[in-house]
Amino acid sequence: MPTSKDVAAAAGVSQSTVSYVMSGKRPISEKTRLRVEAAIEQLTYRPNAGARALASRKSQVIGLVLPITPEAHLGSLMEFIAVIAATARRLDHDVLLVTDEEGSQGLERVVGQQLCDGLILMQVEADDERIPVVRKLRVPVVFIGIPNDSAGLNCIDADFARAGELCVEEMAAAGHTSGVIIGWRPRLVGSRLNYVGRFLGGANAAAERLGVSLNHVPATSDRRSIEAAVDACIAGAEGKPAFVSPDVTVLELLPRILHERGLEPGKDASIIAVGPTPDVLIELQESTVLDLQPREVSRRAVEILFSLMQADRPDKDGLLELIPPRVTHRHGTAGPTVPVTQSIH
After folding, report:
1. pLDDT tens digit string along 153-164?
2. Confidence of residue 344 (pLDDT cuts 50, 70, 90)
3. Where are the beta strands (DSSP E) in 85-239?
4. Residue 117 Ramachandran class (φ > 0 left, ψ -120 to 50 alpha, else beta)
5. What is the pLDDT of residue 92?
6. Is there a single domain that holds both residue 153 and residue 200?
7. 165 with 262, same domain?
8. What is the CATH number of the domain that holds 33?
9. Residues with Cβ < 8 Å from 223, sequence gap 6 or more?
């Protein structure tokens, strides 16, 4: 692997001159600079992270601020982290994970010490205490999530309200007049994260518009509680019952519980799975799957951050981008008889 000493020899200059060309700390003649740059290109020299930081006065690192809370689903969060890291790496940057034990002071620390060139914030609360600090930071920030006061902020998220609407529209299209949403967990429903409220708000609005009777039962990991919710829905359904759930545990158990009651998913009952993991799809071959596209949300969050980092004067008005849910109908699902996948815009 070539070193800066090799570059200096090829360019016919001192090693310190190579350093000055890279860091910009001292004026170097155009002729000398071009010789050094040509040698770097010829040798395919790649400076280490510290040298790159000196050359660009940038850290080549973005910060990912992720509070680890009791209601967080670590499997889902890891999907975000993996895509963010891969996208940043493709753009020649590394990711610094900040788990937020320091709260807002942690943001000020990583920016104040020039540890990163921009930040992505996750687990965004409705009235997020980090917002006043973010508004004062000297680096671009992108929120994955939408706080109540998003004025001037850069936010991206799945379109949870549209996802809720789509679930009810799927019910109505399949001929259901009633259904139940099993999920989210009680502590998540009562938390300050507002995406649950956005989903339920969209679902309730669509139910009222389409004349569908809709109940919401908080999810639980207890099978008996899930069975009770299923039995109540079956007893109260006019025709075939319909179930919606974003909860992995519920989605794993639902097909089995229905089969035990003589009901075949996709024929005698409909299941709409919201944002499940790939493993869950094995159990849900005869259901409608509504993918909230976390990978696309993650990828776009990084792309937005990089566009802000490269802008001379970032737009102070901020932006709001919602990623539409993606719907897949599988064979036997109550509704369309031909399997089809489509993005809903």
Report:
1. 999 999 999 999
2. very low
3. 94-98, 118-121, 141-144, 154-158, 178-182, 213-217
4. alpha
5. 85
6. no
7. yes
8. 1.10.260.40
9. 253, 257
Q: Which domain, by its residues, includes 101?
A: 61-159+295-323
Mean pLDDT, the chain, rounded, equals: 83
- Half-sphere exposure in the Cβ direction for 113 (13 Å, CA): 9
Residues 199, 274, single domain; the answer is yes
From CA 24, how far away is CA 54, in angstroms rounded?
Answer: 8
- Nearest CA-CA partner of 162 in 208, 193, 205: 205
Residues 108 and 148 in one domain: yes
Give the pLDDT score at 247.
83
> How many domains are contained in the chain?
3
- Strands (E) across the chain are located at 61-65, 94-98, 118-121, 141-144, 154-158, 178-182, 213-217, 242-245, 270-274, 288-291, 319-323, 326-329, 340-343
Domain co-membership, 66 together with 214: no
Residue 72, SS3 per DSSP = coil
CB 301 within 8 A of CB 84: yes
> Is the domain of 220 the same as that of 332?
yes
For the segment 248-266, what is each residue's pLDDT rounded down to a tens digit? Answer: 888 888 889 999 999 988 8
Write down the residue that tokens 């060139």 correspond to.
Answer: 117
Per-residue pLDDT tens digits for 300-332:
999 999 999 987 666 678 999 999 999 887 643
Are residues 312 and 241 part of one domain?
Answer: no
**For residue 163, which amino acid is it?**
A
What pLDDT, on a 0 to 100 scale, did the predictor assign at position 143? Answer: 97
Tokens 């309200």 appear where?
161
Angle, helix 4-11 to helix 15-23, in steps of 10 degrees: 100
- The helix (run of H) or strand (run of E) holding residue 304 is helix 294-310
CB count in 10 Å sphere of residue 38 = 13
Q: Residue 304: its pLDDT value, please? A: 94
Q: In this structure, are 210 and 233 located in the same domain?
A: yes
